[in-house]
Write a structure and sequence with these properties.
457 residues; alpha/beta; 2 domains; seven-stranded mixed sheet; four-stranded parallel sheet; single chain; 12 helices; Spore Coat Polysaccharide Biosynthesis Protein SpsA, Chain A; globular; UDP N-Acetylglucosamine Acyltransferase, domain 1
């Protein structure tokens, strides 16, 4: 049945206008799933990273940094809808503060860096079919953003969800859109290859790409890192941060014993019996920020060599076809991570950066922080932490979705004096609430009055 399932899946993708490379990549992973490949990376097959160079060790001249940034393009995957937060549009349309969305702040960062360094610095978003129109509508408010005739976005592909029982394309007449899923941000390579944008960038004189998730406002343009990366002559660099006991879920880099290559391992690629190593910050000391630096010429050579099928490690996700209906049919989604391409380059580098370059928003916990006085966000879009230690935030299920979060916490909370805030019950916050120390609000729920000070030990 697997061969028949593959042909049906390929036909479905062709009929939907999916690019040739994306179909070939999907077919590659389909073969792995059909053969029983789990995509797991065993602990005994890797070694933890040792010491890695840090950003504070970088020494780059101002002109060298400027020249490198002038030959750099910013690429931001922007296909996510934020469904885990109850959103139905691009997460980057979500207001961060003062009426400004992620996209507004990203545009401010780009334009400020251009003014400061006198560089071109194009912005290129990888949108999905669901985020393309809304994203471009927002960016139309920044007519100075496009440069060199380059587009502001390109489209990622999509692929069929596969029924877990026989690996045939799932059908769901009640909502046919649920028959499709994104291939993970590892699809960025096939999409660049199919769109022709990689050649277009090289023809326009760009040689480097700074890539990061669009919800990570900490990964602002950095001329110093650009200059350092250009000077190394390396094909690739991944930024990492030192892990703490609170960083147990994110992927990490390691060294593969078989060939000494750097590899990326995510949670979904870790066997249950190896999770104790995966989550131990004393074993795997650094987590992957997904801030990446590419040499575009090296990337094009690798894509030409492989026909666009890079063969990144498989991420096999088992879900239900309707994420909101656990009784709906079980499906397999095949994915890959863009950071996993580090293993393709024997000259790949790793750079340890400060936590201020990793400020993603995956839950309303992080949104509460961004909207608080813990950060200041200037006209240049740069996040500047106002405290030495970022408070720990843990909001209960009542705050999972943004709509419910906004209803319960409609005003910024003052958190500069907080150590942590844990909310398990259903609490509503008034204006100018201040948290001091470590505060826990329990299951009983209630209302926090305007101006109230929550004092912890």
């Amino acid at each position: 049945m697997s061969e028949q399932g593959l042909q049906r899946a390929r036909r479905k993708m062709i009929d939907a206008g999916i690019g040739r490379t994306a179909i070939d990549v999907f077919s590659h992973y389909y073969g792995q799933v059909a053969s029983g490949d789990t995509g797991l990376i065993r602990e005994d097959s890797i070694e933890p990273l040792g010491e890695v160079p840090g950003i504070d060790d970088i020494r780059v001249g101002d002109e060298q940094a400027r020249e490198a940034l002038d030959r750099t393009v910013l690429i931001r995957p922007n296909g996510g809808l934020g469904t885990s937060m109850g959103l139905t549009r691009a997460k980057t349309l979500l207001e961060v503060r003062d009426g400004r969305s992620f996209l507004d702040i990203l545009a401010a960062q780009v334009l400020a860096a251009r003014r400061r360094y006198g560089v071109r610095l194009p912005l290129l978003l990888m949108d999905s079919f669901n985020t393309h129109d809304d994203t471009l509508a927002v960016l139309a408010g920044y007519p100075e953003l496009p440069v060199d005739g380059l587009p502001l976005d390109f489209l990622q592909s999509k692929e069929p969800k596969l029924l877990a029982g026989d690996l045939t394309p799932a059908e769901w007449p009640a909502d046919p859109s649920l028959e499709w899923c994104p291939p993970g941000h590892g699809d960025i390579y096939a999409s660049l290859h199919d769109s022709g944008l990689l050649d277009e960038l090289l023809s326009a004189g760009y040689r480097y790409a700074a890539v990061s998730n669009s919800d990570n406002l900490g990964a602002a343009p950095d001329a110093r890192i650009a200059g350092w990366f250009a000077a190394t002559g390396a094909s690739w660099c991944s930024e990492v941060c030192e892990r703490t006991p609170n960083d147990r879920k994110g992927g990490h880099l390691a060294i593969r014993r078989a060939d000494g290559r750097l590899v990326l391992r995510d949670t979904a690629q870790t066997a249950d019996e190896d999770l104790r190593f995966f989550t131990d910050e004393t074993v795997h000391r650094y987590f992957n920020t997904n801030n990446l630096w590419w040499n575009l010429e090296a990337l094009r050579a690798k894509l030409d060599e492989t026909g666009g099928v890079l063969g990144l490690p498989l991420i096999r996700n088992t879900k239900t076809i309707d994420p909101k209906d656990p009784s709906s049919p079980e499906v397999i989604q095949v994915e890959s991570a863009m950071g996993a391409a580090i293993e393709l380059f024997d000259d790949a580098k790793v750079l340890k950066v400060a936590r201020d370059r990793f400020v993603p928003v995956k839950k309303t916990n992080e949104l509460l922080l961004l909207r608080s006085d813990v950060y200041e966000i200037g006209d240049d879009g740069i996040l500047r932490a106002q405290v030495e230690r970022i408070p720990g935030i843990d909001l209960g299920p009542a705050y999972k979705f943004v709509g419910e979060f906004d209803r319960r916490i409609p005003h910024p909370v003052h958190l500069r004096e907080a150590g942590s805030l844990t909310v398990t019950g259903d609490w509503s916050f008034g204006a100018d609430v201040r948290v001091v120390g470590d505060v826990t609000l329990g299951d009983e729920g209630g209302t926090i009055a305007d101006g109230q000070v929550l004092q912890g030990p």
